[in-house]
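Example for tutorial group B:
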């Protein structure tokens, strides 16, 4: 469906995160376990070197607009992993697969399937990558802000421990969060598709620390002011790889990995089918 851009603006009137209305991306107080109060602060640390300590990977796909000046395609979905690489293992690989790429070869997967924009911040050290964690409400990477701020939907991948949801160490589960101050079709679609795919799927509204509710959370800084945050427990992420090491994960994806990525892609497709193009 082709929708006039002015019509789209009317649909989202009143959303505080529209275009230039993004909250100021200045450094915030770091989370209780964070060394850095923002990505900007991390990038400015002279003791860190990009490509040695951390990496940023991103891709935006071309959109052809041959229509009238006030009409044209609207970017729909971006997939992000703000704590990729060795910070929250498995989230980079899932980010790529959900965006439509094989994490090892970067070839389209499936070959004829849709692709989505993506952005990742990754810890690439041999150890101590947790020091590079910047909480999602403080994410101010300019590419991440641009990609999310120009899209209708965002999916973010995160890792948590079973203890964070009061489960035993071996429990595999996924929490689905996002903005809750208005109906969130993407969150609901994710809950339904992941549950149907056989995963222990929970509404993160019951886990405030993992709920992704804040409007400052990078996943909610979209044109619609909402997104879908996925928190996967460590056992679930480990089940998705034959070898759960930074260098081997992308080469040893399991059936569980592709089933999860496929369910998320189905959730995205269902929501996008109802949105203007």
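The residue assignment follows.
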């Amino acid at each position: 469906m082709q929708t006039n851009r002015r019509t789209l603006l009317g649909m989202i009137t009143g959303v505080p995160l529209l275009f230039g209305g993004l909250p100021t991306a200045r450094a915030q107080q770091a989370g209780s376990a964070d060394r850095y109060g923002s990505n900007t602060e991390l990038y400015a640390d002279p003791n860190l070197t990009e490509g040695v300590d951390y990496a940023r990977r991103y891709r935006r796909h071309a959109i052809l607009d041959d229509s009238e000046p006030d009409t044209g395609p609207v970017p729909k979905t971006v997939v992000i992993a703000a704590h990729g690489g060795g910070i929250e293992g498995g989230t980079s690989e899932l980010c790529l697969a959900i965006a439509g790429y094989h994490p090892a070869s970067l070839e389209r997967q499936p070959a004829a399937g849709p692709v989505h924009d993506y952005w990742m911040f990754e810890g690439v050290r041999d150890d101590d990558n947790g020091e590079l964690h910047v909480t999602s409400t403080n994410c101010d990477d300019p590419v991440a802000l641009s990609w999310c701020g120009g899209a209708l939907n965002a999916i973010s991948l995160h890792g948590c421990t079973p203890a964070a949801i009061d489960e035993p160490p071996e429990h595999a589960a996924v929490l689905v969060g996002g903005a809750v101050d208005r109906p969130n079709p993407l969150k609901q679609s994710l809950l339904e598709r992941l549950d149907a795919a056989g995963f222990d799927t929970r509404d993160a509204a019951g886990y405030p620390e993992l709920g992704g509710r804040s409007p400052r959370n990078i996943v909610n800084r979209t044109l619609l002011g909402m997104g879908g945050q996925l928190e996967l427990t460590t056992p679930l992420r480990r089940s998705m790889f034959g070898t759960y090491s930074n260098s081997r994960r992308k080469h040893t994806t399991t059936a569980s990995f592709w089933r999860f990525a496929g369910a998320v892609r189905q959730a995205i497709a269902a929501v996008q089918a109802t949105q203007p193009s």
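The first strand starts at residue 54 and ends at 59. Compare this with the pattern of hydrophobic and polar residues in the output above.
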